[in-house]
Amino acid sequence: MKCLYRSSTAMGLALMMGGSPAFADMEAARAFLDERIERSALTREQQEEELQWFIDAAEPYQGMSINVVSETIATHEYESQVLAPAFTAITGIEVTHDLIGEGDVVERLQTQMQTGENVYDMYVNDADLIGTHWRYQQVRNLTDFIAGEGAEVTNPNLDLEDFIGTSSATGPDGKLYQLPVQQFANLYWFRHDWFTDPEIMADFEEQYGYELGVPVNWSAYEDIAEFFTGREIDGQTVYGNMDYGRRHPSLGWRFTDAWMSMAGMGDKGLPNGVPVDEWGIRVNDDFQPVGSCMSRGGATNSPAAVYAIEKYKNWLENYAPPQAPGMTFSEAGPVPGQGAIAQQMFLYTTFVASLVDPELPVMNEDGTPKWRLAPSPHGAYWEEGMKVGYQDVGSATLMQSTPVDRAQAAWLYAQFIASKTVDIEKSHYGLTFIRESTLNHESFTERAPRLGGLVEFYRSPERENWTDTGFNVPDYPRLAQLWWQNIGDASSGAKTAQEALDSLCEAQESVMERLERAGVQGDIGPMLNEEMGAEHWLEQPGAPKPKLDNEDPEPVTIAYDELIKSWQ
Questions:
Q1: With 0-12 CB in 10 A as exposed, 13-18 as middle and 19+ as buried, what is 517?
Q2: What is the tens place of the pLDDT at every residue in 155-182?
Q3: pTM for this structure?
Q4: CB contact at 8 A, 300 and 507
Q5: Same domain for 291 and 411?
Q6: Is residue 505 part of a domain?
Q7: Contact partners, residue 73, CB within 8 Å, separation at least 6
Q8: 220: domain range?
Q9: To bridge 470 with a disulfide, which of 133, 272, 288, 546 should be the other Cys (CB 3.0-4.6 Å)?
Q10: Are residues 117 and 162 both part of a single domain?
Q11: pLDDT band at 25 (very low <50, low <70, confident <90, very high)
Q12: Which residues contact 385 (CB under 8 A, 6 or more apart)?
């Protein structure tokens, strides 16, 4: 991999001379554009105008040092190693952009919420926390900030309408709480070259009685997983599934990131099920959480949830590499690129950047991939009109406890790393799109055939059916940790799926009950239903849903070429 950042003479001198001198001209900015910005949605003249605005707006903050934190993915590596030094050289504001695990980011944010101490001046954390931020009001909502304290430091060329993920970061009150700086979905990943191999296709049809193709439902996914597992292809043993199962915070994301809604646990509705979401949490008409267990109208321990866990565990144990149960999110992500995986139920597309290395066995000599991306198949309880999959919207977040001047300086950095000047180059590096102007740029039209369907997906209105965690979750940091701890019991075999989910829903309700008693979220916080018994709620329409007589319906597949037409 080429070096992420090569200091120009101007930038190098600036940093050696203390790191935060005032620039009276565009020397550092022009050096940055010359060295790092080959492609942009703006003309060179417009880029210089935008960077001149940053220089002018940053003048009151020159010499200030600010601290920013985000999870460790390729996009944030680019920001930390390329854009942060450039911002420092151009504006005179010293930025330390730390990269840590996503669970650690949430923990630091939670610490700042609880103590009021300014741990970081800006967090890049998922818009999954929108229900938390809206209820606690401990982050600056950007709608009011831009109109008030942040007015003088808000880029006139910010163009919020150009962002594709702001709806995820907007509360029920219509206020924007976070600014997206990266975005990725989870999609089905498969070896297109194997799925279209005539001999393999004939073998599959002879064995299963239908055509090998992209699985539309979990029944087909399971058949395909069974078919490929243990086969010898290209001199190696192949596996029909890839996943991870280590007891670790990332195991929780594996399920809260829409696995349960893909199974069909929640209700119909977009962006999230109403009134029961993909965490199994039911809310009333005022978005007050009223239950998680079936006895209160929730679905976290419902038959559909048990089905989701049991399918995951069965496929992990029988069709994935033997090391997969001991892996975490970050360890499992690159494995499909090693060449022995036939399909993966969902791949977080943040890993696409690492799967297009021309040296990998999953790439053709002409630079095109042997794999493709498609919508993830859905489970037996899923119904038309439900959420299709998960989309991560990593967003810049400013806490109320951060002093005003530091929040203003951090806001400048947030806008810089999401600016039209830099976004296309950043997106080519990390492939986590946030702007329409970037998606529609000719450079991505040219590159699309080498990205396996990623560009086609993001240019399609279908992307709106992939959403992040919504308003039903009242305290993401507290509730998220319950998922990996309890699902870990099921994954390890310490508990059955039903036992683990019973414990999970009870733990979620315990947290919500404490929030209700404390009254810290006012009249939008939890207000738990009286327990009426699971049978009462199973007889009502929607989630929780009764156990199906047949949880393995007729398998359905579709040819990839037919599928991709729907994205175009």
A1: exposed
A2: 999 999 999 999 999 999 999 999 999 9
A3: 0.93
A4: no
A5: no
A6: yes
A7: 182, 350, 430, 432
A8: 186-247+307-377
A9: 272
A10: yes
A11: low
A12: 268, 269, 270
Q: Are 98 and 69 in contact (CB under 8 A)?
A: yes
pLDDT one-digit tens code per residue, 439-475: 999 999 999 999 999 999 999 998 999 999 999 999 9
Mean pLDDT of the chain: 94
Q: Check whether 356 has a pLDDT greater than 70.
A: yes
Of 377, 399, 417, which closes a domain? 377
C-alpha to C-alpha distance for 400 and 109, rounded to whole angstroms? 12
Instruction: Label the pairing between strands 122-126 and 389-397.
Output: antiparallel
Q: Residues, the chain, total?
A: 568
Beta-bridge partner residues of 179:
396
The reply to whether 410 and 482 lie within a common domain is: no
Q: How does DSSP assign 492-513, residue by residue?
A: HTSS-HHHHHHHHHHHHHHHHH
Q: Which residue pairs, CB below 8 angstroms and at least 24 apart, start in 362-366? A: 362/191, 362/336, 362/337, 362/338
Helix axes 476-492, 102-115, angle to 10 degrees: 140
Given a contact cutoff of 8 angstroms between Cβ atoms, the answer to whether 168 and 468 are in contact is: yes
d(CA 404, CA 408): 6
CA distance 118 to 103: 19
Question: CB of 451 within 8 A of CB of 352?
Answer: yes
The answer to whether the peptide bond before residue 474 is cis (omega within 30 degrees of 0) is: no
Same domain, 240 and 125: no
Alpha helix positions (H), 320-402: 329-332, 352-355
Rounded to an integer, what distance in angstroms lies between the CA atom of residue 169 and that of residue 281?
Answer: 20
CA-to-CA distance for 26 and 514, rounded, in angstroms?
Answer: 55
**Structural domain total, the chain:** 3
Is 3 contained in some domain?
Answer: no
Amino acid at 128: D
CB 180 within 8 A of CB 417: no
DSSP state, residue 325 = G
> Residue 24: pLDDT above 50?
no
DSSP string, 144-157: HHHHTTTGGGS-TT
